[in-house]
Write a structure and sequence with these properties.
Keywords: Membrane, Transmembrane, Transmembrane helix. With 128 residues, this protein is mostly helical. It is built from five helices and no strands.
Length: 128
């Protein structure tokens, strides 16, 4: 396995800074705004950023009805609901706990209701 170059580490640190700072801003914003408005501000900021990147690269938003139909269904489920719940969670939990509790799962990964999967020995794995 090769060692990642410096650009990879820089990108990872930038991603961690952006991701972590969003939780800091949520904790500050809920002190002066209702949670619904904080979630709306996060989504609006993301939309404006997306439009700016599209304009800077000379690309356009998709125009097909099928794409917008899929977006109308997935946006509330994948963006609006989680961001709103994260903000509501930010109101309810102590500072510093929110990023740990609210870590996002990849789409399609099931939520373990009873906790993480138990550790299996190699013999148990091969028989399963």
């Amino acid at each position: 396995m090769t060692e990642p170059d410096a650009r990879w580490w820089d990108a990872l640190l930038l991603l961690a800074l952006i991701w972590g700072s969003s939780f800091l801003f949520v904790e500050i914003a809920v002190q002066v705004m209702p949670p619904g408005y904080v979630a709306l501000a996060r989504l609006a900021t993301g939309a404006v950023t997306l439009l700016a990147v599209l304009a800077a690269t000379g690309q356009r938003l998709p125009r097909g009805k099928e794409v917008w139909g899929h977006s109308a269904v997935t946006a509330p489920l994948v963006n609006v609901a989680p961001f709103t719940l994260v903000v509501l969670l930010g109101v309810a939990v102590a500072q510093g706990v929110l990023p740990v509790v609210a870590r996002r799962r990849p789409a399609g990964e099931p939520v373990e209701a009873a906790g993480p999967e138990p550790v299996r020995t190699p013999s148990e794995r091969s028989s399963a």
